[in-house]
C-alpha cells in the first residue's frame, strides 16, 4: 500500500493546477483562492490533529511553533502566491514543469552554501534539467509563452527552494502533521492580513467556484498530505520522493484532457529530462543517506500546495 498511497498523493497534488484553472474560469480570483484554500485546509488539519492528540500528547517548544508559523507566513504564502499568479497567466502543464526545477535548485544551492557536495550524479542531473528547461521553453512550436508567467513560475520554484532550506531543522524536530498544520495556519494568517490591508477579497462568485475551491481544499491539499505521510511510513523517504515525480505527469495529462492544453514533442522531451534529473537526485540521496539536505530533499513533497503544492 505504501507506493499506492504515494501515487495517490501525487495524483491529487497534480490536480491542483487543473482545479485552480477551473476556479479562475468560474470567477474566483487568485487572492480569494489562496485565502480560502489555506484557511479551510488549516481548519481541517487542526481538527484532525485535535482528534489524534486525545490518544497521544504532542509536546513542542514554543520556539519551534513560532518558527513553523513563520515559515508558513513568510515562505509558503509567498511561494503559493507566485505559483497561482503564474497559473493565472500560463498553462498548468507548462507551469508544473518549470516549477519542478525546485529539487535541483535545492541541491545546487546546498552545494554553493557548503551544506552538500557535488557528485557525478548531481552534475548529470544538473545538465539534464538545464537541457530539459531549454527544450520546454524553446520548443513551443509557435505557441506563445507568457514571459511574465514563466518568471513568476521560476520565482515560485526559487521561493520554495529557500523555504525548504530554511525549514530543514524544523522538519527534523517536529511531527510532520503538526508542522503542516502550523505552516498552513501561518500562511492563512499572512494572506488574511494582506487581504484586510488590500480591502478584502471578492467572494461574489457562484456555486461552481465553491465546488472547485472545495476540490482544491479536500482533494489537492488535505487528502494528498494524509496519503503522503501514510505512504512515507511504509516506503521510506527516498522512494516516496521518487514516486512524487509522477505529479507533473498527472498535471500534463489532466490539462490535455480537461483544459485542452498540449505540449509539443520537443517540450514533452524536455519535461522528461527535468523529471529524470529529479529521479537521479533522489536515487543518489537514497544511496548517500547521510546529509541533512538529503533529508530536506526527501521531505520536499510534504509541503507541496501545489501545490502547492505545488503548492
Automatic annotation (TrEMBL):
Gene3D superfamilies: 1.10.3730.20. Residues 2-137, 148-281 form the EamA domain. Keywords: Cell membrane, Membrane, Transmembrane, Transmembrane helix. Signal peptide: none annotated. It comes from the Bacteria. It holds the Pfam family EamA. One of its GO terms (cellular component) is plasma membrane. It is found in: Cell membrane. InterPro entries: Diverse_Substrate_Transporter, EamA_dom, EmrE-like. It is a multi-pass membrane protein. The chain crosses the membrane at residues 30-51, 63-86, 92-113, 125-142, 148-165, 177-197, 209-232, 239-259, 265-283. Belongs to the EamA transporter family. This is EamA domain-containing membrane protein RarD. It comes from Actinoplanes lutulentus.
Amino acid at each position: 500500500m505504501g507506493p499506492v498511497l504515494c501515487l495517490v498523493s501525487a495524483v491529487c497534488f497534480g490536480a491542483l493546477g487543473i482545479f485552480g484553472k477551473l476556479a479562475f474560469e468560474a470567477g474566483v480570483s487568485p487572492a480569494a483562492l489562496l485565502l480560502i484554500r489555506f484557511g479551510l485546509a488549516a481548519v481541517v488539519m487542526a481538527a484532525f490533529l485535535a482528534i489524534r492528540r486525545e490518544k497521544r500528547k504532542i509536546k513542542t517548544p514554543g520556539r519551534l511553533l513560532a518558527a513553523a508559523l513563520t515559515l508558513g507566513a513568510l515562505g509558503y504564502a509567498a511561494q503559493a502566491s507566485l505559483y497561482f499568479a503564474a497559473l493565472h497567466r500560463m498553462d498548468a502543464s507548462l507551469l508544473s514543469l518549470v516549477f519542478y526545477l525546485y529539487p535541483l535548485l535545492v541541491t545546487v544551492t546546498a552545494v554553493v552554501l557548503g551544506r552538500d557536495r557535488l557528485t557525478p550524479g548531481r552534475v548529470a542531473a544538473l545538465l539534464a534539467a538545464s537541457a530539459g528547461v531549454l527544450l520546454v521553453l524553446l520548443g513551443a512550436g509557435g505557441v506563445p509563452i507568457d514571459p511574465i508567467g514563466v518568471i513568476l513560475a521560476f520565482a515560485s520554484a526559487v521561493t520554495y527552494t529557500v523555504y525548504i532550506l530554511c525549514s530543514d531543522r524544523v522538519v527534523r524536530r517536529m511531527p510532520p502533521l503538526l508542522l503542516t498544520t502550523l505552516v498552513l495556519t501561518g500562511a492563512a494568517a499572512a494572506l488574511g492580513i494582506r487581504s484586510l490591508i488590500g480591502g478584502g477579497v471578492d467572494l461574489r462568485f457562484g456555486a461552481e467556484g465553491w465546488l472547485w475551491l472545495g476540490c482544491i481544499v479536500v482533494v489537492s491539499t488535505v487528502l494528498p498530505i494524509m496519503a503522503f505521510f501514510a505512504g512515507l511510513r511504509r516506503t521510506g523517504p527516498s522512494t516516496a520522493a521518487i514516486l512524487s515525480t509522477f505529479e507533473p505527469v498527472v498535471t500534463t495529462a489532466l490539462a490535455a484532457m480537461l483544459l485542452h492544453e498540449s505540449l509539443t514533442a520537443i517540450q514533452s522531451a524536455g519535461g522528461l529530462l527535468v523529471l529524470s534529473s529529479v529521479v537521479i537526485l533522489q536515487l543518489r540521496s537514497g544511496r548517500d543517506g547521510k546529509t541533512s539536505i538529503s533529508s530536506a530533499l526527501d521531505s520536499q513533497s510534504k509541503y507541496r500546495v501545489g501545490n502547492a503544492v505545488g503548492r
